[in-house]
Write a structure and sequence with these properties.
Two copies of one chain form a homodimer. With 237 residues, the first copy, chain A, is of the alpha+beta class. The first copy, chain A, folds into two domains: 125 residues, Sandwich (Jelly Rolls), CATH 2.60.120.10; 78 residues, Winged helix-like DNA-binding domain superfamily/Winged helix DNA-binding domain (Arc Repressor Mutant, subunit A, Orthogonal Bundle). Chain A has seven helices and eleven strands. In chain A, the strands form three sheets. Chain A has a four-stranded antiparallel β-sheet with strand order 1-8-3-6. In chain A, strand 10 and strand 11 form a beta hairpin. The first copy, chain A, is globular, with a radius of gyration of 19 Å. Chain B binds a DNA duplex (30 and 30 nucleotides) through helix 6.
Chain lengths: 237, 237
DNA sequence: CGACGCTTTGAGGAGATTCAAGACACGTGG
DNA sequence: CCACGTGTCTTGAATCTCCTCAAAGCGTCG
């Protein structure tokens, strides 16, 4: 692994800059080292390519190292809904845990790289599984909490949903070391609308309305937050 | 525990009639016995009483033995939404797992009883925690899957949501040994509407519309499914 | 048996969708 | 480097679904 052609030095869990966000968070130093042995790195996908497909057997938990992805669910009529967007440092794959078969499809929104913690080791005792299981359980529950939060958001008026969406993306990017106030959306209006339960025209209208109100500046997918308080005010009244 | 005043013999995990639905499902006989030692039984709540409250510290996973409950989430503005309804044999409490603090409130819809697997033992090694952790992980993931399913449902037209709701309750009751075609709803129209993202008047209208179409028979909360195919047809076109 | 809460039913209105068309951005090839 | 084409984004107008408000009917429980 150390003789790659990249200019970077080999990345392990021990020196990964996402370690505080990713699964190792909370593990002992030695355990992180052990975990590092079990992880497959340097997986790459390009825009539109699939990370895993609905119905495929669960192969493990995935940690996004760079780039972004969307998690979509498809019902029996072929309706596709965006369950979540995944940013660097975030985990992916919990939809395959319960039934050992993925219930969703994960698709790259841009070029991305990810690490892969093989399912084989999730129930083996290669490392202190008690702690790892605990961590996984927490992450899985966290996914549940997020869905509940999203459910609450979907009940709110369209403008609140969009305001909240912008602010949440901002927060998540900030937590990962990116600018909180100026960033590029990697998903289309259509995908945002699908995620928020709105038509893409509605999303577009509201985003431009926010711009007219001096809350944000938008140019296509480039977004700049001008007045965070006003945005917050939309759903904290 | 065996010297209770009830007429039933003492219930343990080993002789509980919900064993195939509850957590022990898949455990070894001896492990079920061990698990039984850790469970607090005979907890009772009456209609409207709280099982656990949002913000309270996580004390463990709960298995509903009889009766039904609702799981509600409350946002910063005091808006209350019904996240889920819980039927006998179903598990509860996963909203407290990630942050060790409950994110939701669980409330009895009628008189109910439940078992309580103390959180203290979830990370101790009193029994084969590898297996139990695995089981818990699967249940937690299952909760996530359910929320994704619900998310998809909420995108559908109101009539589909109600049809799906009726059929899902029917299936869940059937799996627990109750009649699949005739049952009593333990929740109000208001609560159904809240759960499905509809006004209670809309729920009422649609239920009565279904009755006019000879799909169901309704008398207040008593419900009888007359034509399951027609109901299915509403969202499987 | 009376009161309260839940359910039903109707009318009107608001918010978001759908349909349609034009503007813009981006990647491709000349 | 620019022209072109495709897909994305914007904007407008008409429509529709579902909500809100209002009031009456029913059921349930003290």
């Amino acid at each position: 692994m150390s003789n790659t052609l990249t200019t970077k030095t080999a990345v392990t869990c021990e020196n990964c800059n996402l370690d505080t966000l990713c699964l190792p968070n909370g593990l002992q130093r030695t355990e992180i080292g052990a975990l590092g042995q079990l992880v497959k790195r340097d997986n790459i996908r390009r825009k539109g390519e699939i990370i895993y497909h609905v119905g495929s057997s669960f192969r493990g938990i995935i940690a996004l190292r760079s780039g972004s992805a969307k998690l979509v669910s498809i019902d029996s009529n072929g309706n596709e809904i965006v369950v979540n967007f995944i940013l660097p440092g975030e985990l992916l794959g919990f939809d395959g845990l319960a039934l050992q078969t993925h219930q969703c499809t994960a698709i790259a929104l841009e070029t991305l790289s990810f690490c892969h913690l093989s399912a084989h080791y999730l129930d083996s005792s290669a490392i202190d599984t008690a702690f790892l299981n605990q961590a996984l359980l927490q992450r899985a529950s966290d996914q549940f909490d997020s869905q509940v939060q999203k459910m609450m958001l979907i009940r709110r008026p369209a403008e609140e949903r969009v305001a909240s969406f912008i602010l949440k993306i901002s927060e998540r990017l900030k937590a990962r070391g990116y600018s909180a106030l100026e960033f590029r959306l990697t998903m289309s209006r259509e995908e945002i609308g699908n995620y928020l339960g709105l038509a893409h025209e509605t999303v577009s209208r509201i985003i431009n309305h926010f711009q007219a109100l001096q809350m944000i500046e938008v140019k296509s997918r480039q977004l700049k937050i001008i007045n965070k308080k006003k945005l917050l005010g939309f759903y904290e009244e």
